């Protein structure tokens, strides 16, 4: 500065000279910052291409070794968002490197961080969705259709809520919000809701238990302890719907079903046993009656020969000898129709064999006093 002043430069001219030098230094500084930020982004962009190539060409060689295709499906689903996640990670580090004003830096880096968390949440959701779909396919193979439509949507909703809640907590933590107070408030609120809706929660937990334990499935015919019976049409979170034989819909809270005795006609298989009781006159040939009952049952279409029908002499009645015929059908829904056909045929065969159905009779003895 003294050299410039000794050469005759004025003070204003000297100040302009230094301002120009500071401006040039500032330009060089920003050019350097932007160049390094661009290099960081370009590196991560190139890295995303490498990661994508590895996931498409190298990783399937390892997943093909496993016995299940679950890892192949997960790998295929997460490849696009993983590549995008690497690119936005590079964008985040590039923005973080720049010496921006504090507010501008907070807003830009925060937005990019939120996008990264959203992509990571999407990756986790895709993995969870593939696992649930794979598990649903296995449920169909083991237990048939029905449970996959009940359990999987519920699990997907719970997983979605959990992932969104986790992502929200991560974002709030990044912006230095007090998460402890939020969690405490949610806990107190959940306790209050649980106390107010304890019956509803009990039914929901019971519904989840029914879906897991599976004492019956959709389409099964069940008998309840109170005498009601019918076919299960739906197993919901709060109630189970049963369609009775007179075409009415019976809606029962799940907690009641979990705490009562239920007879499932469709378990362990749909074969069902029918029973017919008849009375024949005293003096009838019991062996002939048994053979006639069994042969009549075998003539009816739908009666299984294995296990074969069986006839038994069960009791001495007031006016008849009580007989019972047991038979099997392949489907429990055919019991009533088959019973009707067997009854009609028994009347014909008994008439042909001379077997009599006795009417109730009563003999009265009168004693005359002397």
TrEMBL record:
State the organism of origin. Answer: Geoanaerobacter pelophilus
- Which regions form coiled coils? none
Q: Does the keyword Mitochondrion apply?
A: no
Domain named Mechanosensitive ion channel MscS: residues: 199-265
Q: Which residue numbers delimit the Mechanosensitive ion channel MscS C-terminal domain?
A: 275-357
For this protein, the record's InterPro entries field holds: LSM_dom_sf, MS_channel_1st, MS_channel_C, MscS_beta-dom_sf, MscS_channel_2nd, MscS_channel_C_sf, MscS_channel_TM-2
**Name of the protein in question:** Mechanosensitive ion channel
GO CC terms on record?
Answer: plasma membrane
Q: Where is the Mechanosensitive ion channel transmembrane helices 2/3 domain?
A: 157-198
Q: Which family does it belong to?
A: Belongs to the MscS (TC 1.A.23) family.
Q: Which GO terms describe its molecular function?
A: mechanosensitive monoatomic ion channel activity
Q: Does the keyword Transmembrane apply?
A: yes
Instruction: Tell me the keywords, alphabetical order.
Output: Cell membrane, Membrane, Transmembrane, Transmembrane helix
Classification via PANTHER family: INNER MEMBRANE PROTEIN, YNAI-RELATED MECHANOSENSITIVE ION CHANNEL
Subcellular localization, as worded in the UniProt entry: Cell membrane
Lineage here is: Bacteria, Pseudomonadati, Thermodesulfobacteriota, Desulfuromonadia, Geobacterales
Signal sequence, renumbered to the chain: none
What membrane topology does the UniProt entry give?
Multi-pass membrane protein
Looking at the record's lineage, which domain of life comes first? Bacteria
The record lists the membrane-crossing segments as 27-47, 82-100, 106-125, 151-173, 179-197
């Amino acid at each position: 500065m003294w050299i410039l002043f000794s050469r005759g430069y004025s003070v204003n001219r000297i100040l302009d000279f230094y301002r120009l030098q500071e401006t040039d230094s500032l330009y060089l500084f920003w050019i350097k910052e932007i160049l390094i930020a661009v290099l960081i982004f370009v590196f991560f962009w190139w890295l995303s291409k490498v990661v994508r190539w590895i996931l498409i060409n190298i990783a399937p060689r390892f997943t093909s070794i496993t016995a299940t295709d679950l890892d192949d499906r997960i790998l295929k689903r997460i490849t696009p968002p993983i590549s995008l996640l690497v690119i936005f990670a590079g964008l985040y580090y590039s923005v973080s490197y720049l010496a921006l004003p504090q507010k501008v830096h907070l807003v830009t880096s925060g937005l990019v961080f939120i996008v990264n968390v959203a992509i990571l949440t999407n990756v986790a959701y895709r993995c969870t969705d593939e696992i649930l779909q794979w598990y649903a396919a296995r449920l169909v193979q083991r237990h048939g259709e029905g449970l996959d439509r009940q359990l999987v949507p519920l699990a997907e909703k719970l997983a979605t809520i959990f992932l969104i809640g986790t992502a929200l907590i991560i974002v709030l933590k990044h912006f230095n919000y007090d998460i402890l107070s939020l969690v405490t408030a949610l806990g107190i609120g959940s306790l209050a809701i649980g106390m107010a809706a304890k019956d509803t929660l009990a039914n929901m937990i019971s519904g989840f238990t029914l879906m897991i334990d599976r004492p019956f499935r959709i389409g099964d015919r069940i008998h309840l302890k109170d005498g009601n019976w019918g076919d299960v049409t739906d197993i919901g979170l709060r109630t189970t719907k049963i369609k009775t034989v007179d075409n009415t819909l019976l809606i029962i809270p799940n907690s009641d079903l979990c705490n009562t005795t239920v007879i499932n006609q469709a378990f362990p298989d749909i074969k069902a046993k029918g029973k017919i009781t008849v009375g024949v006159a005293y003096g009838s040939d019991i062996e002939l009656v048994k053979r006639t009952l069994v042969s009549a049952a075998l003539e009816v279409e739908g009666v299984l020969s294995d296990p074969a029908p069986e006839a038994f002499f069960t009791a001495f009645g007031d006016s008849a000898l009580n007989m019972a015929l047991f038979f099997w059908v392949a489907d429990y829904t055919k019991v009533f129709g088959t019973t009707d056909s067997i009854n009609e045929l028994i009347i014909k065969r008994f008439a042909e064999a001379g077997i009599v159905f006795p009417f109730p009779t009563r003999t009265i003895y009168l004693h005359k006093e002397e």
